[in-house]
Amino acid sequence: MQQVKSVITEFRGSHFDFGIEQGKWLKTTLMMENREREWRLRRPRFDIDIQETKAAFKRFAPGIWEELLGLQASLKMDMTQILLNFGHYRVYAKPSGCSVFTTQDYLLRNYDYHPATYDGRFTFFQPTDTGFATMAPVSRITGRMDGMNEHGLSMGYNFMHRKVPGDGFVCYMIGRMILECCKSVDDAVQFLKEIPHRSSFSYILLDKSGTTQIVEATPRDIVVREHHYCTNHFEVLTHENRRVLSDSEMRMTNLKAQTSKDMEASQAFKIMNNPDAGVFSNMYSSWSGTIHTSCYFTKDLTVQFALGGNNPPVTLNFQDWLDGKPLPTQQFTGQIDSDITFASE
Questions:
Q1: Residue 303's beta-bridge partner residues?
Q2: Residue 242, SS3 per DSSP
Q3: b vs e for 2-16, b when ≥16 Cβ sit within 10 Å of the residue's Cβ?
Q4: Would you tell me how many other CB atoms lie within 10 Å of the CB of residue 264?
Q5: Given 26, 52, 203, 300, which residue has the most CB atoms within 10 angstroms?
Q6: What whole-number distance in Å separates Cα of residue 29 and Cα of residue 22?
Q7: Number of CB atoms found within 10 A of residue 320's CB
Q8: 163: closest CA among 117, 199, 210?
Q9: Could you tell me the CA-to-CA distances from 133 to 126, 127, 319 in Å, in that order?
């Protein structure tokens, strides 16, 4: 077992200044060195087109383009390298896990992936130039794994497959754009229909009204369905599914058997976070181990968050932070059954 931590950060200001600040933090970590090693081992299977990427950001999330410029100014890197590492446009995705369950009050999610890709940061960000305030765990500096915004819109995504990728944004950048640009599930659904998708994912959405939608998205098609459970296979676009779905179907069966729409969040959280309950995964070396469990309460703007398994969650109040109150803690801690370290270590 390995002791792990995720640092909680907060920033209020422009996207450009946010990029500057993140560049300063990166210089204190091994993340860029680890990323360079990763690119040597796994050559990029995509091209970097600066003008095309800039045009896409300017259309869908201009503030994040300013953040990339701030990163460039701070790190003194050329724009090709900035987009390779932080742009998340046209990136080839590895397979992963993840399970999500929603009720009308909360979105509960297990994030399953490889520890070496995990930033170990949870960020509160209130932009002063454009976009909504958000709180979310960070993926590859500029992306988000799941999260909630100031309007109570919550989001999580699940990997489906990597077949026939297209030109477009990857899941963790799309997830962030949803949170910064959309007020409601309806807004997010429309956004997902317009944005170009690199790979195939399901996006699970819940807003303050209690509305849940699951958007099955590929570079070729978009389908919206109403459901409260999602693992790693499509229910409508079944022709897009991978051949081997046994693990995904097993987690779906275990989720449905042990949870219900009337279940208290604390009980559901224990089920998701318990390695013996059949939803939590220890397959870290196979890119599908559960790194964190998160539960977003859309009506009162709070989150319960835990690293690793069998770990009582820490509660953070987003509304309190928006009102200027200090955060009660500066990090999350937990244990995972792996010796693979996080990306920044």
A1: 296, 316
A2: coil
A3: eebebebbeeeebbb
A4: 11
A5: 203
A6: 11
A7: 14
A8: 199
A9: 4, 6, 10
**Residue where the block lists tokens 């297990």:** 110
Amino acid at 98: C
- Length of the chain counted residue by residue: 345
Using only C-alpha atoms, the chain has a radius of gyration, in whole angstroms, of 18
Contact by Cβ (8 Å): 83, 53: yes
Contact between 336 and 344 under an 8 Å Cβ cutoff? The reply is no
For helices 50-60 and 62-75, angle between their N-to-C axes, nearest 10 degrees? 130
Rounded Cα distance, 109 and 332, in Å: 16
The residue type of 177 is: M
CA distance 106 to 205: 10
| Residue 262 vs residues 65, 88, 213, 256, 300: alpha-carbon distances, Å | 42, 38, 18, 13, 18
Q: Which residue, among 174, 170, 176, has the nearest Cα to 96 in the 3D structure?
A: 170
> Rounded CA gap, 210 and 223, in Å?
20
pTM (2 d.p.): 0.95
Show pLDDT as tens, one digit a residue, over the chain (345 residues). 999 999 999 999 999 999 999 999 999 999 988 878 877 766 666 778 999 999 999 999 999 999 999 999 999 999 999 999 999 997 555 667 899 999 999 999 999 999 999 999 999 999 999 999 999 999 999 999 999 999 999 999 999 987 889 999 999 999 999 999 999 999 999 999 999 999 999 999 999 999 999 999 999 999 999 999 999 999 999 999 998 899 999 999 999 999 999 999 999 999 999 999 999 999 999 899 999 999 999 999 999 999 999 999 999 999 999 999 999 999 999 999 999 999 988
**Distance from C-alpha of 105 to C-alpha of 89, rounded to nearest angstrom:** 33
- Given a contact cutoff of 8 angstroms between Cβ atoms, the answer to whether 114 and 94 are in contact is yes
Q: Side chain identity at 222, as an amino acid letter?
A: I
The strand pairing partners of 126, in sequence order, are: 12
**Which residue do the tokens 């998708």 mark?**
197
Beta bridge partners of 12: 126
Which residue in this structure is represented by tokens 């087109």? 49
